[in-house]
Amino acid sequence: MTGFGDDWLSDGLDTTGAESSLWVSGVDYIAGWRGAREAADRLNRAFLGVGLEPSAVRAVASTNEHGRGVVRLAGWPDDVDRLSQLLEALAGGDGGAR
Questions:
Q1: What is the pLDDT of residue 10?
Q2: What single string gives the DSSP state of each residue in 7-27?
Q3: Could you tell me if 71 and 36 are in contact, meaning their C-beta atoms sit under 8 angstroms apart?
Q4: Which backbone phi and psi does 31 adopt, to 5 degrees?
Q5: Better-scored residue on pLDDT, 2 or 86
Q6: What pLDDT shows up at residue 64?
Q7: Which residue spans within the chain are E strands per DSSP?
Q8: Most buried of 3, 34, 35, 57 (most Cβ within 10 A)?
Q9: Contact present, 69 and 41 (Cβ < 8 Å)
Q10: Neighbour count for residue 50 (Cβ, 10 Å)
Q11: pTM for the predicted model, two decimal places
C-alpha cells in the first residue's frame, strides 16, 4: 500500500496463499496485478478512513493462475468481524438481504 513503506507487509499477517507459487510461462501477471494493486490501495485507504489499521486488516493484490488480478482480504478475525459489522450497518443491518 502506498505510504507505508516495505515493512507493512511483514507485521504478522500471512498474506501468501497456497497458489502464490504457481507461475505459467507466457502469462502476463503484471497487468492483472497492477489493476488489483490499484483496487487494493483504494480499499486500504477506505479501511484507514474507518479506523482499521493495516496491521489489523488489509486488501492484498495478487493474481490467479491465468494472470487475472485478484484482491484478497487479510486480517485478524476480530478486526474482520469489525469490518463485517461496519458493512452490515451500511447495508441497513439486514446482512445485505434485499
A1: 47
A2: GGGGSS-----GGGG---TT-
A3: yes
A4: -60, -45
A5: 86
A6: 87
A7: 57-63, 69-75
A8: 57
A9: no
A10: 11
A11: 0.69
> What's residue 16's pLDDT?
58
* Long-range contacts, stretch 67-73, CB < 8 angstroms, 24+ apart: 67/24, 67/27, 67/28, 67/29, 67/31, 67/32, 68/32, 69/31, 69/32, 69/33, 69/34, 69/35, 69/36, 69/37, 69/39, 70/32, 70/36, 71/36, 71/39, 71/40, 71/43, 72/15, 72/17
Helix (H) or strand (E) holding 96: none
CA gap 22, 64 in Å, rounded: 8
Determine the length of the chain: 98
Contact 24, 62 (CB under 8 A): no
Tell me: the pLDDT tens digits for 19-71? 555 667 777 888 999 999 999 999 999 999 999 999 999 999 999 888 899 99
Quick: pLDDT tens for 27-41: 788 899 999 999 999
pLDDT at 48: 96
